[in-house]
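Forum: Protein Structure Q&A
Topic: Joint prediction for protein chains with partners

I've read a bunch of threads here and the consensus seems to be that you should model interacting components together rather than docking separate models afterwards. I'd like to see that in practice. Below is the full input, 944 residues plus whatever partners are listed. Could one of the regulars post the assembled result?
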Amino acid sequence: MMRAVVIVALIGPVIAGLIGVALPAIGYFPAIGRVDWGLEAFRDVIAWQGFGPAARLSVFTGLAATALSIIVSFFLLAALTGNGQKRLRLYLGPMLALPHAAVGFAIVFLIDPTGIVSRLIAQLVGWSRPPDVAIIGDPWGLSLILGLVVKEIPFLLFMALAALPPLAAFQRIKACKALGYGQMAAWIYAVAIPLYRAIRMPVFLVLAYSMTVVDMAIILGPTTPPTLSVQIVKWMASPDLNVRMVAAAGAIVQLLLVLAVFAIWLLIETVAKQLILRSAKMGYRIPRLGAASLRVGRFVRYFPVLFVCFLGILLLWSFAGFWSFPNLMPDGLTTRVWDQEAGGLTSALSNAAVIGICVAGVSTLCAIAVLESGKRVAPYLLFVPLIVPQVAFLLGLQVFMIHIGVRSGMAAVMFVHFVFVMPYVLLTLQGAYDGYDRRYDRVAAALGRSYWVILWRVRLPILIAPIISAFAVGFAVSVAQYLPTLLIGGGRVATITTDAVALASGGDRRVIASYALLQAIAAVGPLLIAAVLPYALWRNRKGLRHA
Amino acid sequence: MKLSTFGAVFMAPTIAFAETDPADWDAIAQTANGQTVYWNAWGGSTSTNAFIEWVGQRVAEDYGVTLEHVKLSDTADAVSRVLSEKQTGQDTGGAIDMIWINGSNFAAMKDADLLFGPFATDLPNWAYVDIDGKTVETDFTVPTEGYESPWAMAQVVFMYDTADMEPVGSMQELLDWAVAHPGRFTYPQPPDFLGTTFLKQALVDLIDDPAVLAQPVTEELYDEVTLPLWTWLEALTPNLWRGGEIYPQTGPAQLQLIADNAVDLAISFSPGEASTAIANSQLPDTVRTFVLDKGTIGNASFVAIPYNSDATEGAMVVANFLLSPEAQIRAQDPNVLGYGTVLDMAKLSDEDAEAFGALDLGVATLSPAELGTVQDEPHPSWMTRIAEDWQDRFGVR
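Posted by a regular:
Agreed with the consensus. Here's the joint model:
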């Protein structure tokens, strides 16, 4: 029952939105007097000169960012001991909380030819002008990939840490080590494959997200041409209403492209799995990787450094007076931007918090209810709201919601946030539930405990870390939503994120920095709590602390 | 049959009728009291946002109208909102009560019958508007016919760093300078409105008789008229910042490039922008502005009211307040906005005219005399074609 409700709530809006987008794509758009069924809009998409490069760019950045993120995450996890994991859990919250846009801007402020790194070099070699080279917006999308990787590694690690406890990884590794394998080999053979299985859905999300991301691609990606998703947004924003039909067709093409890349990824998965299994069967001990992994493992220590760099550069810019190249510090510090923006910030922050708490709370409760019913929501169903390019499906949805009489406002925004938040929450929890060792239940039942007692005293306490993680992830996802808030809220629901993006178009680094900083802070609180809280709750449950 | 249900949705009646008589101002002011007006306006500039907040305070005091600024990153978002409301037959109670608009967004909305009006000429403060001297009754050559009310004048100026260069007098001289100083000029990437404005400005300056641009574009004329522009751009592009591989995405993004000493010259559509940016420490204080010898393009910013707004009276009150000498003086103050006024000094009371005269326009702002000839915007169809062509020629490398 619960599952059916959730599925309808997730899939219904997508179907409505897709129909709202598919009709204009195939020529039906009566609002502007166009009723000429056909594939003309698709021909326009393909006839766009940038189509080939833009599509290639989307595919390349998606695959490269995902593959890199997984490899680095797994290396990190493999190299971590129990203490390292504890440390990682603490560090991850803040890294994860940083919204994509905020990370993008921080990366620009750091590595652009006018950024801090370039200024340091300039001091040494005496440049008076920044070098005229394309680092941000390079034609291969490398800086975009960098930005995505910086954001997706914490996401994958977070998902992996939530899924690890039930896998009994340390026992498995111990067993392998007893057989004479090194840390790295033991991890790869005994943990990597079951862990990957547990976080497979998050991996596909990363893949779909990396291909269709808009905000980060605008900030870090190339512009001649941009990625396909950015181009769709541009078409959507064209004052010539006929171009909306091209945008709609572009959205459908983007969807097909994502599906095609999924097929490629399935192939990559199979090959990687076969390689690992074959290597395991041969008893290969992977000697060289051992030393390398330890070095990578140390990288975790630098997470806080990276985090401080990101926030620090945003903080500095938000207070900066005039700040010319190649000076390392601004000419002066001023609170001008903070004073100017103080008024709007309060309501924007509180709106975001109210929406985030309600949506993440309801989502977490729904997820527990669904999972407790013993049923699973087929992953591909959860996927649907996340792989459809947001901008397209939302415009269709907007049309639909207005039609059924849903007025713009907080409630409508919360509902549409739920569509995007619920899958993440369910995915976070589903892996943990699947990995949960049912023998605990059986032992408790054998001791005569009822279902509710077992749920309350055994299952929920064991699963409390993933549950809190799920809530925190949901909150962060909600806070970062831009297009859903803007479109479904009719612009009347202003959150810190909608304001931040609106101001970003103005290009004043001080304003961008101040909003990006506050956006990060809005999301960082719950995630910090999610990282720390389980340890407080497990005061009296020693066994779980090492799980 | 599912399809036919949706068909009905899209076909829903779209006829709107106004219950408000724009001419009966007393009734309007009375009805406006207590209304909330959602003004959808570009939110990319802190100084504009602060000005709109002030407008909100003033109309609340004088008329009991609550003004909410919906900060847009792109005005087209508001256009699509009204469009989807019309698609679904939501002909009353629309989410948007007023839009800061001009150019092709206005043309598109007017064309699709998405606007309330005519109302502009019925506003009491319309009496002060400089109808003869400023292009307030046409918007990119499209007659406004009272469907939008002007509130600020804009004119192209070039911001340049006096530490690095001298002003140039024409687009040809600009090219010569760029060739001699490669990598030190760029412009916002079309279809950003300032980017397309730069293309229009180049075209207007490069051809002998810009009058042809006032008419809608025709196939016979297009290639011949725009040829000088493409030749000029072919020569300019390799000498742009980043070799034309990357462009700034918005106008204000250029300010940062000047501040970083990456470029020395940038286009602006607001004569006061440089002064305001210097005051906000976004630009070095060595920046000044210039216009071309033959003059530069100018246009007006307007506000329009969607056909399905429930607060048309409140929106008209705000539009009227924006035309008041009080609001116009504040908007022209470079410490606030630095936008040009739409009012005719001769029609104002002596006191108000003096207040305008007493404004210190700022170090980098040209006086009205120095701003010189204002050239007309080409018909929007030219801009659409040129932006598309630019996309094909330079937007994909």
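Chain A is about 75% helix and 0% strand.
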